[in-house]
Each structure stands twice: as C-alpha cells, then as structure tokens.
Amino acid sequence: NSEKKIWMSYRNNSSKDYYTYYQVAGGGLELYESFVDCVKQEVLEETKLDLKDFHFIAYDEGFRIFPDCPDRKIMFKTAIYLTITDEIPQLTEPDRNSAWEAYTINEFKNLKVTNSLRLKESVIIEAINSKFRNRRKHKNEINHVDSQK
C-alpha cells in the first residue's frame, strides 16, 4: 500500500499447501493464460481488487517439495508482481485464509512466508523500495514544477 506495507493473509486450511504460512494473493495459471491475466484474475478473486497498474518483479521456476506432498518434487513457475494501492483487500476465501493484513517490510522479513516469497525476498524488498523512491522523486519533480508557475 502507499505506506510501504505488504498485504498478506495467513493460510488457515490444514488440507491446503502452506498451511500456517503467510501469503500474498496468487494462484494457478490456467492453460493458455498469461501471467498478467492470471495476476488480474487471482487478485480479483482473492481480494476483490481490480488491478490496473502492476509491475513485474521476479520469476522463479523449478522443482520443489511442497508441504502437503513431502514425498515428491513438483514443478512450479512463479511470477511476482508489485502494485501500490490504498484500497483494502476483502476476505473472499475464509475457508482458506485469514483476513488480509498490511505488514511492514521488517515484519515481512520475520513472517513464515511461502518459499517463492522467501527465495525472492531481497528482490521484492528492493522493488518496493525502488518504486517508493521513484514515486517520491516524481512527486518532488511535480511540486518543483508547480512552484515555478
């Protein structure tokens, strides 16, 4: 959000992957679906936020052991995107996760988060910090131009 916090929810369904982990909105890519369309659809389904402006941060793929299938490695592909919004996500899947809460970057570092978030933590944090630096710079440029009028 505009206060440099990350909206996350706690996975509360013991029959789902990453039970007791914190997550951001996301989900599975449908056949022939682009990552961009997947982001829009999953965020809308899980939070009721209709994203218009979001930016690619990182991509990760490979094979991983998931908590609910400890006996085999499963292929995964993850694309991580960033958006800044003052809108508040709504809880749409109470049978899967808790209400959305905004966490500071320092809190995020200490949460038990999904593997993709943990592996890309430094890239995510740098992208957030960079986006806010650019916003401040742009805002200062606008203020400077306005003061020249």
UniProtKB/TrEMBL annotation:
Q: Which Gene3D superfamilies match?
A: Nucleoside Triphosphate Pyrophosphohydrolase (3.90.79.10)
* Pfam families tied to this protein: NUDIX
A single BP term in Gene Ontology? dGTP catabolic process
Q: Which InterPro entries match?
A: NUDIX_hydrolase-like_dom_sf (IPR015797), NUDIX_hydrolase_dom (IPR000086)
Extract the GO molecular function terms from the UniProt entry: 8-oxo-7,8-dihydrodeoxyguanosine triphosphate pyrophosphatase activity
Q: Which SUPFAM superfamilies match?
A: Nudix
Cellular component (GO) terms are: cytosol
Q: Which residues form the Nudix hydrolase domain?
A: 1-125
Specify the protein name. Answer: 17225_t:CDS:1
What lineage does UniProt assign to this protein's organism?
A: Eukaryota, Fungi, Fungi incertae sedis, Mucoromycota, Glomeromycotina
